[in-house]
Amino acid sequence: MTPAVRRPTPLTLVSGGRAAGREAAIARALPPDQPAAVILEGLADGNGILADLAEQVSPSSSFPLQLLRIAPGCLCCSGNLVLRVTLNRLLRHPPALLFISLADASHIEQLRTWLTASPYDALLALQADMVVS
Length: 133
Description:
The chain is of the alpha/beta class. It has a single domain, classed as Rossmann fold (3-Layer(aba) Sandwich). The protein is built from 5 helices and 6 strands. The chain has helices at residues 19-29, 49-55, 80-90, 108-115, 120-123; strands spanning 9-15, 36-41, 65-70, 97-101, 124-126, 130-131. Strands 1, 2, 3, 4, 5 and 6 form a 6-stranded parallel beta sheet that branches. Strand 2, helix 2 (49-55) and strand 3 (65-70) form a beta-alpha-beta unit. The longest helix is centred in the first third of the chain and has 11 residues, at 19-29. The radius of gyration is 15 Å and the shape is globular. It comes from Janthinobacterium violaceinigrum. This is GTPase.
C-alpha cells in the first residue's frame, strides 16, 4: 500500500493593529468544523477571543482549535529556533489551516522567504497575508 500524499497546510500570516484586533480577525476567518491552529507571537493579555474559542468544545465539532504562544521577538531572527520547533511539532499532525499572528511585521518578507524554503515549502502553502488596521 502506498502512503497517502500529504497536502500542504494553508498558512496565513496576520499582522498589523493590536493583538486583540489580530485575534478577532483570525477568529472571524476560522471555518467551522475544520481543525485549525494559531501561533500567536506575544504574551496573553487575558482577554483573548482565541483562548475562549480554544477552550470551547462543541458537541457538534470534533475539531478543537490549537492555540500556541511564542514569546515576543522577531520570528525570522531571534525567534527563528522557537518558531521552527513549534512548527515541527505542530506539523506532525497538521491542522487544516494555520495562522501565525505577528506582533511586529517589519521582517515579514524574510519570514515568508524562510517559510517557503525547505522543508516548509512541501509542508505549508502560504496564503495572502491578513493585515489588520
